[in-house]
Amino acid sequence: MINQLQERYQLSLLLLLGTIAVLGVFPFAVIRYLDGNLTASIIDMALVLGLIVLVAYAYYSKKIRLVGAILAIFINGGAVVIAIANGINSFLWVYPVFASTFILVKPIEAFCINVVAGISLVAMAEIFDIISMDSFIVTILILSISAFVYANHSLKQFRLLETLNTVDALTGAFNRRAMSTDMQAALSNSERNGIKQFLAILDLDYFKSVNDKYGHAVGDQVLKEFVKITTSHIRQYDRLYRFGGEEFVLLIPVVEEQQQTFIDNLRTVIKKNLKTPNGEEITVSFGVAPWIPGTTLDTWLQRADEALYQAKAKGRDCVVFNNE
C-alpha cells in the first residue's frame, strides 16, 4: 500500500504536535518580550514560525518523513539554545521536547538526537551551577529509554495493523482495500505524467474442479502456491492483489517495451510450476487493460474483466489485451 496509511497517521501526529507546540511556545514569546528579554523572545518566535512553516510544508508536500526529521532536529536545537540563553526559566522545556522527538522520527533516530542535544546542554549550559548534572543525565536517560521502548513497541503494533489492513490473510497477496488505494494513486500518476501502466485480472482455470476433487484445504494451498510463484516472477514494484476467490489483480505501474511478452511468460511460468497433488497443470487466464487517458478505477477493472471474459471464451490459458 506504499505506506500511505502510515503517512496519514504520521501527518496527523505532526499536525497535532505542531499545534500544541505553537500554542505552548507563543505565549512565552509574548511574556518574554514584555519582560524585556528580547533574545529569548526572538528565539521563541523563531521556533513558532519554524514550526508553522515545517508543518505546512509537510501537509502540502506529503514529505512526512523528511519534515519529521528536520522538525526533530529543529525543536531539539531550539530547546538547547533557549535553555542556554534563558537559563533555569526555560530549562524544563527540554523534557517535553525530548519526549516528542520519538513521535517525529524512528525510535533509534530519536534516541541519537536526544543524546546529542543532552551532550550539548551539558557542554554549554551554565545551568548546572544551579541544578545537579548527575540528576539531569539520569533523568534524561530514563526518559529517553522509556520513550524508546514505548515508541518501538508502537511501531511494531502499527506495522502489524498495517499488514492486517492491507494483506489477504490466506494467500499473503495484497487485499482489495490496498488495491483500491494503489489503483487510485496509479491513475493519478498516469493522468499527471502520462505513464503507461497495465492492469491485469488473473483467474485460475477450472479451480472449482480442484476444490471438488481434492477438497478446500488443497484448494487453499494451490492459491498460496500461485501467489508465491507469481510474486517471485514479477518486479519489486509490481503489485498482486486477491480480488476474490480464485481471481487476482496484477498492477504493473511502469510498462516497459517487452511488457506484453513478460505477461505471457508469466502465464507460462505459472502453468509450468502450479500443479495439483497428482501433478496436473493448473493454468491461468489473463485479461489485461493498459491505461488510457480518462480511465477511472471502475472502467479500468471493467476493461480488464472484459478481456478476461474473452480469454475464457478462447479456451482459457491465454492472455487477452483490451486496448479500447
Automatic annotation (TrEMBL):
Bilayer-crossing regions: 12-34, 40-59, 66-88, 108-128, 135-151
EC number, UniProt record: 2.7.7.65
Domain GGDEF: 195-324
A Gene Ontology molecular function term of the record: diguanylate cyclase activity
Keyword Transmembrane carried by entry: yes
Residue ranges that the Swiss-Prot or TrEMBL entry lists as coiled coil: none
PANTHER family in the record: DIGUANYLATE CYCLASE DGCM-RELATED, REGULATORY COMPONENTS OF SENSORY TRANSDUCTION SYSTEM
Name under which the protein is recorded: diguanylate cyclase
Taxonomic source organism: Paraglaciecola arctica BSs20135
